[in-house]
Amino acid sequence: MDDLSATAQPVSRPAGLASSAALGALLDAAAAGKFPPADGAVEIVSQPGERDAGVISFTGFAVVFADTDPDWIAGELPADDLSAPLSVRFLHALGQRLGRQPGDIDMLACAVPLSGAPPRELMLGEIDPTAQHARIARALRYRDDVRAWQTAGGVIVLGRGVAGRWETAIEVDPHYRGAGLGSRLASAARQLVPDGSPVWAQIAPGNAASIKAFLRAGFRPIGGESLMTPAPADPGPA
Predict the structure, then answer these.
(1) Which domain range does residue 126 map to?
(2) Which pLDDT value is given to residue 75?
(3) Tens digits of residue pLDDT in 78-137
(4) What does the pLDDT look like over 23-64, one tens digit per residue?
């Protein structure tokens, strides 16, 4: 790791590049198991859309997608620190620069789609994505084209997130946990994803049960990610 750190050099791209295609291509390649060289480089691209800004880190490589001065970003990232792009210090500075709040640092996982329909015994039924459910409400804030399915004790959500990738989230009711329902729902998401696309999941590193469920369902750890969310509006003086 020391030798790699010593040669790390940030690489920047000017804002205004067609970054949605650039970031999307990088994610598609990672989903297929083709990763950038682990040489410590940091690629800087503009945001794929107004909603999404943040940092994705792979092994020995990171990409920052943010509509701000690439030279400022490069200056905030020491060339000898591979962990800098997802460090609390840099994420805080980037959030301040963008007027956004840095989100959690999640484990980013991915799986190829599965053929066929989810098992009948799951008895999944599609539900209105505007249904009053915390997991669905969160998905609607961060994803487009959201769809949701429900079974006894659990929910699956699919939607298009960063750079148009398909993302999934699952929720298992407390009384149904510990019986493998989470892994069955995560596996079903691989069958429900449209267009034969890979499906992505962002998982809190401390949520060991969720990590185990997604790993059992065939998801592979790809890297880490932190998204920048718009800061809440100032309500003004009371």
Answers:
(1) 109-223
(2) 94
(3) 988 999 999 999 999 999 999 999 999 999 999 999 999 999 999 999 998 877 788 788
(4) 999 999 999 999 999 999 999 998 998 999 999 999 999 999
> Which residue's structure tokens are 């959500």?
157
**One domain for residues 14 and 62:** yes
Handedness of CA 128, 216, 82, 24 (dihedral sign): negative
How many structural domains is the chain composed of?
2
* pLDDT number for residue 20: 62
Asked if residue 185 and residue 212 are part of one domain, the reply reads yes
Among 102, 124, 143, which residue terminates a domain?
102
Query: Is 152:123 a contact under the CB 8 Å cutoff?
Result: yes
- Asked whether residue 233 is assigned to any structural domain, the reply reads no
Query: CA 57 from chain center: how many Å?
Result: 11
Structure tokens at 132: 């009053």
